[in-house]
Amino acid sequence: MEAINLLKEFSEEAIKKDNIDAIVLSGSQTSLINDEMSDYDIYIYSKEKVNIETRKRFAEKYASYYQLGGDYFEYGDELIIDDICFDFMYRDLSFAENEINYVWRECNSKIGYTTAFLYNIKNSKIIYDRDSKFQNLQNELNNEFPDKLKENIMKKNLAVMKYKKCASFFEQIEKAIKRKDIVSVNHRVSAILSSYFDVLFALNKELHPGEKKLIKYAYKLCKSLPENFENDITNIINCGLNENILENINNLIENLKKII
Fold it and tell me: What domains appear along the chain, each with residue ranges and CATH number?
């Protein structure tokens, strides 16, 4: 049974007993780039959690394995159906509305992944949408990427990568190498790459697609890419505690600045 049909059945049962605003399908199975390891993310937007008995009946009918009410990352259910993971997450619609207001309308930047949740909203497939509230959010995100948001993402993330005078990620990696602290080096390399992609997607006025397959997404979505884009990233990840990592990080950042 196809995922869309499964979720339509789930929706029809859920809305009988629960006051649900929207049910949408997302996850890497529905993305521009998917593979046999991709999964489905299903977001149920309602002020109250969907009736547990409705969820249990659905899981018992279709899943070879399920866990209901987990809270490892956020409250939700995990089901394995035909060897594919279906991850159900339960949220209040105000969560999405607040994110759009803070980032899209007010143009506030975060450190890394600033627009990733907006990408999720924009590219979700609507299964159920009472009063078209979710569709209205998607319509707003179809407008042009705000120039102020682009500038704020670039300014904040470039600064924290290297150019703020105290405690930049680059400076923290310098100290971690001197301490031979491989865990700290790895932690801050991940932070630099997080900010790097935040800048890169904003520069191209594209919403950030999330944490997976970012190199492939950059090639697909970004018209402007830095020189030696993929090689710079590979060189950094392969360095470990080698002091060449600082030179490689500097090259990564300088090549990014050249296209700004």
Answer: 3-141 (3.30.460.10), 147-258 (1.20.120)
